């Protein structure tokens, strides 16, 4: 697994870099740097301050010379490799008035709930070595607008009715102040749309489809949790599927408290909204009634641990489970996908046509099961079959720390995590960069 992964990165590096270094040498350097990075991380965790004075790699000199701030320099040094992998890509982050972002943070949930990738990515990018403070040298322009933090007082869910106007007002703001939006009509500008139907900005699919992607975003790059592998009006725009946000601290805390022997006493787990008599909302049923079917068929099945109430400690149940059901909700994606992977429970994806995040980093077919929506009646049989055949193999694949890391947004960003994957994907879109010609002749 790790071996093929490294090969994968190596091939990518080779394609991306168009480098003159000999194959083997490059591979060796890559491994060395990778090891170096792990070492750096663990050592610096305990010996942060002494590290600065004792560690002085010649390789980092050019980068270090740009910065006087030691902690900043240290971050740069730790991810020298990133500069290669990202092909020297630079991202400029607009400094918007606080009404577009920071003001929303007064509500603590804004930076922790499942749509909080818009906040997490912003924070992680601010600390990334790919970030530039000079827009003239930028390849991409990130607009940090938090649209999912207007929590409804009635049901507690984010109201995103204001999303379009908030973003369009932010675009107006930057296009008057600086020439970069007008220069490209937004094609090198990056936005996050981390709620149900992404860049369509509505929670109900029929309305989302009717509204479509707003005109002012159509040229841009949208990082969205929504993705399907068929034509859909809410992805008629350059887009990257990103994972929903799960606080990495919560995962770490759960793992710390999990049984030492790694025993999983729950066979199949699901906790969440599961209506017995689903409401017909404008001709649509929540989760296409899949959850209702699961509840009806397996509610009394002892192999299934199904709960409909909210429970803050549900991660401790995931870590005890072998299979974690990830049925669609209003949209196909679910935060359960991330939590299952991060906590080593085999995700059982029940969401026809779903397009999953970062397929080049996460071998979804090897670490999860996919069950068709109209096959949930056979769920018990399917899971039993897997349990007696290839479950061990799937669980082994799932233990790969690289896979688990790819779906979490850390701050600061760590190599291979979700923000890193976003940057890697952007670096494959450098043909959109105004600076492109300069880069390719270097
Ligand atoms: C927040 O959402 C409500 C609808 O639930 C809307 O009336 C209000 O204008 C929104 N607030 C902002 C600042 O956009
Ligand atoms: C960008 O275009 C808009 C609309 O045409 C215009 O009002 C604005 O002044 C332009 N911005 C700059 C910086 O030239
Ligand atoms: C759901 O409601 C719509 C009207 O909003 C109606 O046309 C449709 O027949 C209803 N579906 C079912 C299964 O009741
Ligand atoms: C495990 O078996 C199931 C059902 O036979 C199959 O669909 C799946 O692709 C297999 N997964 C792996 C990783 O072998």
From TrEMBL:
<keyword id="KW-0328">Glycosyltransferase</keyword>
<keyword id="KW-0472">Membrane</keyword>
<dbReference type="GO" id="GO:0000139">
    <property type="term" value="C:Golgi membrane"/>
</dbReference>
<dbReference type="InterPro" id="IPR004263">
    <property type="entry name" value="Exostosin"/>
</dbReference>
<dbReference type="InterPro" id="IPR040911">
    <property type="entry name" value="Exostosin_GT47"/>
</dbReference>
<keyword id="KW-1133">Transmembrane helix</keyword>
<feature type="transmembrane region" description="Helical">
    <location>
        <begin position="34"/>
        <end position="52"/>
    </location>
</feature>
<dbReference type="Pfam" id="PF03016">
    <property type="entry name" value="Exostosin_GT47"/>
</dbReference>
<keyword id="KW-0735">Signal-anchor</keyword>
<keyword id="KW-0812">Transmembrane</keyword>
<keyword id="KW-0333">Golgi apparatus</keyword>
<dbReference type="GO" id="GO:0016757">
    <property type="term" value="F:glycosyltransferase activity"/>
</dbReference>
<comment type="similarity">
    <text>Belongs to the glycosyltransferase 47 family.</text>
</comment>
<protein>
    <recommendedName>
        <fullName>Exostosin GT47 domain-containing protein</fullName>
    </recommendedName>
</protein>
<keyword id="KW-0808">Transferase</keyword>
<feature type="domain" description="Exostosin GT47">
    <location>
        <begin position="87"/>
        <end position="385"/>
    </location>
</feature>
């Amino acid at each position: 697994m790790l071996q093929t992964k490294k090969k994968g990165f190596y091939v990518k590096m080779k394609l991306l870099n168009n480098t003159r270094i000999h194959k083997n040498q490059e591979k060796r350097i890559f491994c060395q740097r990778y090891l170096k990075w792990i070492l750096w991380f663990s050592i610096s965790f305990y010996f942060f301050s002494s590290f600065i004075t004792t560690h002085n790699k010649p390789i980092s000199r050019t980068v270090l010379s740009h910065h006087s701030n030691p902690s900043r320099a240290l971050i740069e040094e730790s991810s020298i490799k990133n500069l290669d992998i990202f092909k020297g890509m630079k991202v400029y982050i607009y400094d918007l008035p606080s009404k577009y972002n920071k003001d929303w943070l007064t509500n603590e949930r804004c930076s922790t709930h499942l749509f909080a990738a818009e906040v997490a990515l912003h924070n992680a990018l601010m600390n990334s070595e790919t970030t530039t403070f000079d827009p003239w040298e930028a390849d991409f322009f990130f607009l940090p607008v938090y649209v999912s933090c207007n929590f409804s007082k009635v049901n507690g869910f984010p109201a995103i009715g204001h999303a379009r106007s908030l973003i369009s007002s932010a675009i107006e703001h930057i296009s008057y102040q600086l020439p970069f939006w007008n220069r490209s009509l937004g094609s090198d500008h990056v936005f996050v749309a981390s709620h149900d139907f992404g860049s369509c900005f509505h929670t109900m699919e029929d309305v989302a489809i009717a509204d479509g992607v707003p005109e002012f975003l159509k040229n841009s790059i949208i990082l969205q949790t929504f993705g399907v592998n068929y034509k859909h009006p809410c992805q008629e725009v350059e887009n990257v599927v990103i994972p929903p946000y799960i606080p990495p601290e919560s995962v770490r805390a759960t793992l710390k408290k999990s049984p030492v022997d790694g025993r999983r006493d729950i066979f199949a787990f699901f906790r969440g909204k599961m209506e017995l008599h689903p409401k017909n909302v404008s001709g649509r049923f929540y989760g296409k009634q899949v959850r209702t079917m699961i509840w009806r068929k397996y509610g009394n099945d002892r192999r299934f641990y199904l709960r409909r109430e909210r429970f803050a400690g549900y991660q401790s149940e995931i870590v005890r489970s072998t299979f974690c059901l990830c049925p669609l909700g209003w949209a196909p994606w679910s935060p359960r996908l991330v939590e299952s992977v991060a906590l080593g429970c085999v995700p059982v994806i029940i969401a026809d046509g779903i397009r999953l995040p970062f397929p080049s980093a996460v071998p979804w077919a090897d670490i999860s099961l996919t069950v068709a929506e109209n096959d949930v009646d056979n769920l018990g049989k399917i899971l039993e079959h897997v349990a007696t055949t290839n479950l061990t193999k799937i669980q082994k694949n799932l233990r790969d720390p690289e896979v688990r890391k790819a779906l979490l947004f850390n701050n600061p960003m760590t190599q291979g995590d979700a923000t890193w994957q976003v940057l890697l994907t952007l670096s494959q879109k450098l043909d959109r960069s105004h600076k492109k010609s300069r880069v390719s002749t270097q």
